[in-house]
Amino acid sequence: MTVAFKQQSADRLQESLALVQRLIERQRQLEDLVSRQEASEPPTDPQAPYYNLEALRLKLEQLHPADVAHILEALPLEDRLLVWDQVDGARDGAILLEVSDAVRESLIEVMEHGELVNAAEQLDADELAELAPDMPRQVVYEVMGGLGEEERAQLQSALSYDEDKVGALMDFDLVKIRADVSCEVVLRYLRRFDELPAHTDKIFVIDDLGLLKGVLSIRKLLVSDPDALVAEVMATELVSFSPDEDAADAALAFERYDLITAPVVDEAGKLIGRLTVDEMVDVIREESDSEVLNLAGLKEEEDLFAPVIDSVKNRWAWLAINLCTAFVASRVIGVFEHSISQLVALAALMPIVAGIGGNSGNQTITMIVRALAMGQMQLSQAWRLWRKELRVSMINGVLWGGVIGSVAWLLYGSFSLGLVMLGAMLLNLMLAATMGVLIPCLMQRSGRDPALGSSVLITACTDSGGFFIFLGLATLFLL
Questions:
Q1: Rounded Cα–Cα distance for residues 67 and 99 (Å)
Q2: If residue 178 lies in a helix (H) or strand (E), which one and from where to where?
Q3: How distant, in Å, are the alpha carbons of 177, 242, 269, 359, 361 from that of 275?
Q4: Cα separation, 305 vs 317, whole angstroms
Q5: What is the DSSP code (8-state) at residue 196?
Q6: Is the torsion defined by CA of 427, 428, 433, 434 positive or negative?
Q7: How many CA atoms lie within 13 A of 300 on its CB side?
Q8: What total number of domains does the chain contain?
């Protein structure tokens, strides 16, 4: 996909969102006008309020479920529910799969039992497994009762795994063949399908016991001798996954090996499902979103238009921690209150030291968190990386400390103050580098997400440390 095409797609989506918003606004205006009309003055066109809704319904039918999901996420709750009411019920399940967890919850809350059952019945077993945790149990049980024995077993299998495991994401719709048949037989077999399962780039080769023996790519099949046996042309070196593996690790493997599909096998090597690239892209996106949220100290993804109380609950914990760390920083300043009163320039310069340290620390911590998440760094490498980051911070400290020290010298006419700025900047950047490596590594060692609140913690360290270093040096050498 070229950059130009992606931009065009984004522009079309924004145009669709703008059109939906205009239709909603006109609908609200008409409803308000009708409600204010006196009974003695009936509206000239009683159907007028429904024209906009019909236009909205037609527009939604033209959009892909993912685009409808984007529009729902971009609307306040009242407008979102109005749009949701105009969505064709046959598409409810597909759209619910696309929206974020927070928005999905708001939609499911207003759906009737029958609507939920109808939406769930539209989905395959693997899709239903993804949606089931957010559905009322009674709905899930009712839908399971209507499934065939094989589909019910597949759904129960998927639901038995945690949502962050491969088993919860595997697809059961795949093509299997035996190794002792010819390529011509395989081609005739494929022609019996109305259409192949989505993302079919390879066929899975199994034996009579269902054990995975290899894979035959569609490209290889098309150019092979029709009389050749599958065993002769199939690939036996392949990437496969266990249902108990972390989905994030599988997503990294998909990215590393440019996979479109991959088999999922049990402990005995029996083929039980497959992973597809669309699911792995979702995992990568969710992991990225989670990392960004955790760096900011947010507990979970938040609906942009969520009720105030929900947003408060999501944000309060790390704000409380931040309040405590800010109080510590204020007490550090309080300890040097006498020094600041004697040399007022310290009050103007100390935020610079803390701010640059915080920025440098966030750069280091972001790099370390990403390396841990991507599996590029092991905890045993922390010492080596710390030494590297320490050298980087020393060079930056001398460079930018020299710049700000020179500025302080020119502004306040004190060469000693400039040297103190240089020293404080150097030491605080070294502290930032140390904490930038130490914090995520300690979080990882303790079994927690290394990104969780890291930004808050590094800022607290560089603020308090920066104030202490700068004011301490100033007290020792200037007063």
A1: 10
A2: strand 176-178
A3: 18, 11, 16, 40, 38
A4: 20
A5: P
A6: positive
A7: 11
A8: 3
pLDDT tens across 334-379, in order?
Answer: 888 888 888 888 988 989 999 999 899 989 988 888 888 777 788 8
CATH of the domain at 210: 3.10.580.10
* Terminal CA-CA length for the chain: 64
Q: What is the mean pLDDT of the chain?
A: 88
Task: Give me the CATH number covering residue 144.
Answer: 1.25.60.10
H helical segments located in 336-344? 337-342
Helix-helix angle 48-62:3-36, to 10 degrees: 160
Q: Which residue is it, tokens 């008409």?
A: 30
To 10 degrees, the CA torsion angle through 410, 413, 415, 420?
-80
d(CA 227, CA 276): 30
Same-domain status, 332 and 449: yes
Q: Which tokens in the block code for residue 326? A: 């800010």
- Concatenating the DSSP letter of every residue in 371-428 gives HHHHT---GGGHHHHHHHHHHHHHHHHHHHHHHHHHHHHHHH--HHHHHHHHHHHHHH
Check residue 39 and give its pLDDT: 47
**pLDDT exceeding 90 applies to what percent of the chain?**
56
CA angle (152, 190, 276) in 5-degree steps: 55
Query: What 8-state DSSP symbol labels residue 446?
Result: T
- In the chain, % helix, strand, coil (3-state, to 5) comes to 70, 5, 25
Question: Does residue 148 share a domain with residue 24?
Answer: yes
pLDDT of residue 417: 93
Tell me how far apart the alpha carbons of residues 388 and 433 are, in angstroms, rounded to a whole number.
Answer: 9
Confirm if 448 and 440 have CB atoms less than 8 A apart.
no
Domain co-membership, 199 together with 117: no
Q: What is the pLDDT of residue 120?
A: 92
Over the chain (479 residues), the average pLDDT of each successive run of 10 is: 61 89 87 65 55 88 93 92 93 92 91 93 88 91 88 89 92 94 95 93 95 96 95 94 94 92 95 94 83 66 73 77 84 88 88 91 88 80 91 94 92 92 94 93 85 81 92 90
Q: How far apart, in whole angstroms, are the C-alpha atoms of residue 373 and residue 370?
A: 5
Residue 353, Cβ density class (10 Å: 0-12 exposed, 13-18 middle, ≥19 buried): buried
The per-residue pLDDT for 380 is 83
Whether residue 417 lies inside any domain: the answer is yes
Quick one: how far is CA 216 from the chain centroid? 33
